[in-house]
UniProtKB/TrEMBL annotation:
Keyword Electron transport: yes
Family: Belongs to the thioredoxin family.
InterPro entries, per the entry: Thioredoxin, Thioredoxin-like_sf, Thioredoxin_CS, Thioredoxin_domain
Cellular component terms (Gene Ontology): cytosol
UniProt keyword Transport, yes or no: yes
Transmembrane segments annotated in the record for this chain: none
Gene expressing this chain: trxA
Domain of life of the source: Bacteria
Name of the featured protein: Thioredoxin
Pfam families per the UniProt record, alphabetical: Thioredoxin
Length: 141
């Protein structure tokens, strides 16, 4: 005989958790953090301090979509050392115009609000790591 439970059973709702990915080169676990979404309104204040890597992108851009997972990985890998952010060029024309972004994806590294170096086009993750490590003073020869 089956025991009946009064009332309706409700399934427990899943609790959102950050995804974990193995970073085999480092031999550890890296949280996949999301890049900060920047706008014409918050751009200046968000990049004012420290190192900020900004990805200028658009939803219709194929190469932008290809590197999006790499940008997310970098946000987790460099958390606490480099802020990783994104600017949608279609929604924020003033900011992309200010930095003369003509092709996307364009990545610009800012230090204390000033652009210090940039890259245009889809690049391998190692290229971004080299750029960031160089400016963090942790470059490997």
């Amino acid at each position: 005989m089956r025991a009946s439970i009064p009332g309706r059973l409700r399934l427990a709702q899943p609790v959102p958790m950050p995804r974990l990915s193995a970073d085999m080169r480092e031999g550890g676990i890296v949280l996949d953090m999301k890049p900060v979404e920047l706008t014409d309104g918050n751009f200046t204040s968000e990049i004012a301090q420290g190192l900020t890597l900004v990805d200028f992108w658009a939803p219709w851009c194929g190469p932008c979509r290809i590197i999006a997972p790499v940008i997310e990985e970098l946000a987790g890998q460099y958390e606490g050392r480099v802020k990783v952010a994104k600017v949608n060029v279609d929604d924020n024309p003033a900011t992309s115009g200010q930095f003369r972004v003509m092709s996307i994806p364009t990545m610009i590294l800012f230090k204390d609000g000033q652009p210090v170096e940039g890259m245009v086009g889809a690049q391998p993750k190692r290229a971004f790591e080299s750029l960031l490590d160089k400016h963090l003073g942790t470059a490997v020869n």
